[in-house]
Amino acid sequence: MTDNKKKVAVIGFGGMGRWHVRHLLKSDVAKLTGIYDIDPAKYDIINTDERYTGVSTYASLEDVLSDESVDIVTIAVPNDSHAPIALAAMKAGKNVICEKPVCMSSEELATIYEVSADTGKLFTVHQNRRWDSDYLMVKDLYASGELGEVFNIESRVLGSHGIPGDWRGHKKHGGGMMLDWGVHLIDQMLGIVYDKKIERLYCHCEHVTNDEVDDGFKLDLYFEGGLVARIEVGTSHFIKLPRYFVNGSNGSALVETWNCDARVVCCKDENDRDVVPVVTAAGLTKTMAPRSKESMREYTVPCPKVDVHDFYRNFCLAIDGKAEQIVTHAQVMRVMKIMEAALKSDRLRAPVDLDEVSK
After folding, report:
1. Using the 8-state DSSP alphabet, how is residue 138 labeled?
2. What span, in angstroms and rounded, lies between the C-alpha atoms of 129 and 137?
3. Model confidence pLDDT, tens digit, residues 320-341
4. What is the pLDDT of residue 138?
5. How many C-beta atoms lie closer than 10 Å to residue 164's C-beta?
């Protein structure tokens, strides 16, 4: 019933703020009570669209925090403003959902956790890409053991428009692709490889269109046992590589792009006999000749249907003590420290050991 819904105020009415608003307007567990943005011109749509009937607009952040009806504050503003708003909201008695990356450093994050504990208010980060269907298929394939001992995972997000021409291009606001997309892809990779510790990493950042912050990067995570995960983000790529590519001792999996089926090819017979050499370009090869159809099994994994609003459902239950938070403090801190180590690796142009952050 509507009376049981958690009351939510959204701070920031830009791209992600409007994303939250759209979902909250049709939520079964939360009710959008108000919106605050430092640019009052953004309120025009709220005042003229009947979908926003009953939704308040706040004149200041102080007005949001003093509204006793608000149970949850969702923060969707530039990254450098996350921590101060989160701290103020929890001290004002609000539970907090923060957009990613959670803040500018692991030291800031530790302070947020301290205030959450002191105030008794829940804090979490909107890691919405845990509900990406491509990620979920790879996660399930890894856990199933279907591919044998996995030794290679590649995760890529590639575009060709450069960094958006807003605060994301400026270091002081927490810009750059490591903080914008790396936070998602690292979180996903840790969800996939749930059973191994990262021993070290190596990262190279790109500055094709922006000298101040990275507009792309290549990050290699070296897990115990020999598994290597490549995470790549690019904003100047005019031909895209697959979203995911996974190799194991018994098979491979390919996910071409968002919201598509996964292709899986597994080995049925390791001793593929009578391999016929093939002519490739100017040479002959038996090593790279294709396997016989009889020695392989190929199938597709259907793209799963997901509901990203399960994030809000979980958080509302957690507030009432009826569920554990899906996005935990330890998980968020681990991703933050890995991003810091990746940027350190780029500065040093050398690998960085990860014993202190990957336990």
Report:
1. H
2. 13
3. 999 999 999 999 999 999 999 9
4. 98
5. 12
pLDDT at 293: 87
Which position has the token pair 């430092």? 38
| 3-class DSSP assignment, residue 194 | coil
- List, in sequence order, the alpha helices (H) in 60-105: 61-65, 82-91
As beta bridge partners, residue 153 has 229, 246
Cis ω on the peptide bond leading into residue 101 (within 30° of 0)? yes
Helix axes 183-192, 133-144, angle to 10 degrees: 30
User: Does residue 302 or residue 51 have the better pLDDT?
Assistant: 302
Q: Give the bridge partners for 97, in sequence order.
A: 74, 124
Determine if the pTM surpasses 0.90.
yes
Given a contact cutoff of 8 angstroms between Cβ atoms, the answer to whether 337 and 359 are in contact is no
Q: How many CB atoms lie within 10 A of CB 57?
A: 16
**Cβ neighbours of 340 (radius 10 Å):** 16
CB atoms within 10 A of CB 243: 22
Rounded to an integer, the average pLDDT of 228-234 is: 98
Q: For residues 144 and 138, give the distance between their C-alpha atoms in angstroms, rounded to a whole number.
A: 10
- Alpha-carbon distances of 239 from 34, 157, 254, 322, rounded to whole Å: 42, 11, 17, 46
User: What residues contact 233, with CB distance under 8 A and at least 6 apart?
Assistant: 156, 157, 158, 177, 178, 181, 182, 185, 216, 217
Tokens linked to 105? 């450093």
Distance CA 17, CA 32 (A): 12
Is the confidence at residue 174, as pLDDT, over 70?
Answer: yes
The two tokens of residue 92 are 């004002």
Dump pLDDT digits (tens) for 268-323.
887 877 788 999 999 999 899 888 888 999 999 999 999 999 999 999 999 999 99
Per-residue tokens: 120: 């008794």
